[in-house]
Write a structure and sequence with these properties.
The chain is mainly β. The protein is 9% helix and 51% strand. The two termini are 38 Å apart. The strands form five sheets. Strands 1, 4, 6, 10, 12 and 13 form a six-stranded mixed β-sheet that branches. The chain has a five-stranded antiparallel β-sheet with strand order 2-3-5-11-9, with no helix packed on it.
Length: 302
């Protein structure tokens, strides 16, 4: 999810103008910080993706094999009519799992947008209304083996001022700034072509009680092959008596190409009475198929 602000201002003197420019710059910095923070705190555990009043299903799309089309379902679960503009954005994941915007000049990335078409490009939904967006792969036979990724971005547009609503009264030497939050949400669209492979190993697993009370597990996911990995992490505590207690769960963790590693820091659950002084931790990374297949595993002794 990304957060934007629409800024409206009114000024009546040169002094007001310069004061206004400073306040706008501060607002921009604040909106960038909030948008970045909220984007990385979004949960990836849901089969559908919801932010603001927009519900999106599915939360990611993969075109592989003979698959050529997909429908993305949008639903407005709010009380007001909302309009969304749809476009592509390009992101690169760093080693800590954060997304950074990139340009087409980044030769390390393989972009999918050139081989994708979607319709419509603008959607207006009334309260409790739903609509689908159709996305299609084109010229897939021209792609070299590997994985191509772009992010389909749904940006909420500012609602127009209701008819009959008065304009803000303009007074001498008075500045009025109105900030309207505009939400955006993106989902990855992936094309896989030709022969593909992926392997993940877990290394550098370590445990530490941070601030003497917070159990934290750190590890590195090492990816090889020409496609990304995606799955769930479960962490079980195994006591010296053999009792198994789940103490950690992460849904929908990805290591996207071209990255070869991702560092993970996971706070473990201590509410179940686990002391974390003896025994061991068993880490499993598995896919999200109906019958999950193990991708990687590791154990560490406490």
């Amino acid at each position: 999810m990304l957060l934007f602000y629409s800024i409206h201002f009114y000024f009546t003197s040169n002094e007001d103008y310069f004061i206004c420019m400073k306040q706008i710059e501060m607002a921009k910095r604040k909106s960038f910080f909030l948008g970045t923070l909220l984007f990385f705190l979004l949960p990836f555990a849901l089969s559908s993706y919801c932010q603001g009043n927009l519900l999106i299903t599915p939360k990611r799309v993969i075109f592989e094999g003979p698959k050529r089309t997909e429908e993305i379902n949008l639903a407005n679960i709010g009380k007001d009519t909302a309009t969304y503009m749809i476009s592509f954005l390009e992101y690169k994941m760093n080693d800590d799992g954060k997304f950074q915007p990139v340009s087409e000049d980044d030769s390390t990335q393989k972009y999918a947008y050139k081989n994708l078409r979607f319709f419509p490009r603008k959607v207006t939904l009334g309260p409790n209304e739903a609509q689908s967006v159709k996305i299609q792969v084109i010229k897939k036979n021209e792609l070299l083996p590997g994985e191509y990724r772009s992010h389909l971005f749904f940006r909420a547009m500012e609602n127009p001022r209701p008819l009959g609503e008065d304009e803000p009264e303009k007074k001498d030497s008075v500045i009025s700034i109105h900030l309207t939050p505009l939400f955006g949400i993106s989902i990855p669209i992936i094309i896989r072509s030709g022969e593909t492979s992926s392997k993940v190993d877990i290394t550098n697993a370590s445990f530490k009680m941070e601030k003497d009370s917070l159990p934290v597990l750190k590890m590195t996911f090492n990816r090889s092959g020409n496609i990304s990995s995606y799955g769930d992490i479960t962490v079980d505590y195994i006591s010296t008596e053999g009792k198994i207690t789940q103490v950690g769960l992460v849904k929908g963790l990805a290591v996207y190409t071209p990255n070869i590693k991702r560092n993970i820091s996971l706070a473990l659950n201590k509410s179940n009475g686990v002391v974390f002084k003896t025994g061991k931790l068993h880490i499993i990374y598995s896919d999200q198929s109906p019958r999950p297949v193990k991708i990687a595993e590791e154990e560490i002794c406490l």
